[in-house]
Design brief:
With 337 residues, the chain is an alpha/beta fold. It has helices at residues 7-10, 52-57, 130-133, 136-149, 164-173, 190-197, 221-230, 281-291, 310-317; strands at 13-20, 23-29, 38-48, 75-76, 82-83, 88-95, 103-106, 113-117, 122-123, 156-160, 180-184, 200-202, 211-216, 231-239, 262-265, 301-306, 326-330. GO terms for molecular function: metal ion binding; oxidoreductase activity. Belongs to the zinc-containing alcohol dehydrogenase family.
Length: 337
Amino acid sequence: MPTSSKEADRHEAHAIWYVGGGECAVKPAMLSHPQPGEVLIKALNSAISRGTEGLVLRDAVPETEWHRLRAPFQEGQFPFPVKYGYASVGTVIDGDAELAGKLVFSLFPHQDLYTLPSDACVPVPVSIPAKRATLAANLETALNALWDGKPSPGDHICVVGGGVVGLLTAYVCNRIPGSTVTLVDINPARTEIASALGFRFSLPGDAPRDQDLVFHTSASAAGLTTALSSAGDGASVIEMSWYGDQTVGVPLGADFHSRRIKLISSQVGTIPAERQARWTYRRRLELALSLLDDPRLDLLISHKIPFEDAAVRVPEILNKASDVLAAVIVYDQADEA
């Protein structure tokens, strides 16, 4: 049952901030009473984006992208300090009666209690637990990439990069009838997850050739080289990685032109032009949530971080050398029982 509107008086909200120097801090946050058309949400879990939030932590967001990279409910200004994040799942505890008691997803930063407009919250299907629902933002990225790549039934598809986005991209591609999907990664431990999700795995040296479509998610020049060499003549390589302020060498010599390979950028912040007349961001998010109705996807959640440990643990998680898939913040350990 929803609590009274005095919940905001009885609780002080706290949020994670990126404060510079490769550090995070948990700070008090403003918390307002929900007004008509708003809800008060108690966070259960939020997912850390290792790619984007890693760039934020390392001050690797170029100034030209400060405006475009703003999260919907970000506070502060780049480079620091910023309250940043966009994958929160929680329970509505007050406000709009239509959402009372429901589990909802929102593009809110890492904060334990917050007020939002009702239309900024998307109900999570009842069959999907909160932790898995935090993967919705990553799955949106995968969906957008498929729209850009336009795979067809029967295609041989290669995904280079076995992080969360790469695994979800391969997972969705594998649902296309007749498709043959191979995940390529430098970490042989990804074999087990790929097998559980129903697609193939290979190390870069054994990556398949002559693929009909290739997705690249590794955020490395070596991965992009593998992706280009895996593409068949006339095929497309969908570049999903974002490198921040780093310059990346791309092998556009040799047979790149003679084989007429297409290198296409994909970015989740914009719906492809040919779909904009029909698709909204909410429709895309609702689809992403519905596609998470598969318990096997829980394998992608490799780390659970207690909120009280976040200031120390988040920088560790965002270390490029760490072997982390999805890292999820747990706001109340009692909810783990």
